[in-house]
Amino acid sequence: MPPFVTLPDLALRTLGGSVVAASDESFAEKESLIRPGRPGFQAETFGSKGQVYDGWETRRRRSPGHDWALVRLGIPGVIRGVVIDTAWFKGNYPPYASVEAAAVEGHPSPAELAVASWVEIVPRAELKGDVEHAFAVTDSRRFTHVRLNIFPDGGVARLRVHGEARPDLSVYEGLGLDLAALANGGLVTACSNEFYSSPNNVLAPGLARHQAEGWETARRRDGGNDWLVIRLAGPGMIRLAEIDTTNLLFNAPGAVSLTGLVDGEREVGLLPSTPLQPDTPHRFRLHHADPVTHVRVDIHPDGGLARVRLHGHLVTP
């Protein structure tokens, strides 16, 4: 798969995405398009509408036109690539698809979105059954919604919309926020090891339900330590750090330290090496005089974290 798949899936349901409308969902529900995880399948499992699919499937179209699904991104942003996954759809996949995007602020209804200005970001392309199709996107504008068009009908298991978050942070003016959160524009830009799971998981909303929803490294044997670097939503002053090892029972780090970076270079000490406990949310008050743009999280020597929260205030340059 291309490099863009390492970026967050802006449409993911667990990041707040929603399939707000679809032309048809006779065989399988539209909400499946943005579920986390790989699509599942069990042969010869029939419901009242036929074989059960973990995806979105429309009826056989007998009229002109094509089917479509309209997705509100959980996090608005710049889309770098799209994955259209037809997993398990082998005799009922759409032969072609395209993707459009729009930027509509506020809380538009499906009717308002229908008349919005849409831009084609993935031209009509041929699809195959039971395949992940990856399409790079070159348009660098910020979008809030996407529309998947399938020609003429059929089933798609998942739609992944990978990109860089560009949320509207003006709503936090004068207020504190989690400067590290994916939803606010935070992003892991470097990481020593991601053997078991993605480091961006630690910036996801909500609580991790199990180990796979956090970040976990391989066992380190060289005497060093693992780390990740978080680009904050913007330059800011961090006043509270939450380091959560929930679900990490026998593989939590022994300790953690935090170092602020100014434009990725000059270091600002935030938290010296501090012991951690397994399966525990830890909260540390921080005191520093200079705003930082990035934070390096060092875990000693290795292990996993469920979540990292860095609460503070944006600082206007």
Question: Notable features of this structure?
Answer:
single chain, 317 residues, mainly beta, seven-stranded antiparallel sheet, 21 strands, 44% strand, Allantoicase_dom, hydrolase, allantoicase activity
Question: What does this protein structure show overall?
Answer:
- This is Probable allantoicase.
- The protein is built from one helix and 21 strands.
- The longest helix is centred in the middle third of the chain and has 5 residues.
- The strands form five sheets. Strands 12, 13, 15, 16, 17, 18, 19 and 21 form an eight-stranded antiparallel sheet that branches.
- The protein is mostly beta strands and 317 residues long.
- Strand 2 and strand 3 form a beta hairpin.
- The two termini are 38 Å apart.
- It folds into two domains: 163 residues, Jelly Rolls (Sandwich), CATH 2.60.120.260; 141 residues, Jelly Rolls (Sandwich), CATH 2.60.120.
- The radius of gyration is 21 Å and the shape is globular.
Main structural class: mainly beta
Mean pLDDT: 94
Which stretches of 5+ consecutive residues score pLDDT under 50?
none
CATH homologous superfamily annotation of the largest domain:
Galactose-binding domain-like
Q: Note the main sheet.
A: 8 strands, antiparallel
Count of discrete domains: 2
- Second CATH tier, the architecture of the largest domain: Sandwich
CATH class of the largest domain equals Mainly Beta
InterPro entries: Allantoicase (IPR005164), Allantoicase_dom (IPR015908), Galactose-bd-like_sf (IPR008979)
GO molecular function, one term: allantoicase activity
EC number: 3.5.3.4
Keywords: Hydrolase, Purine metabolism
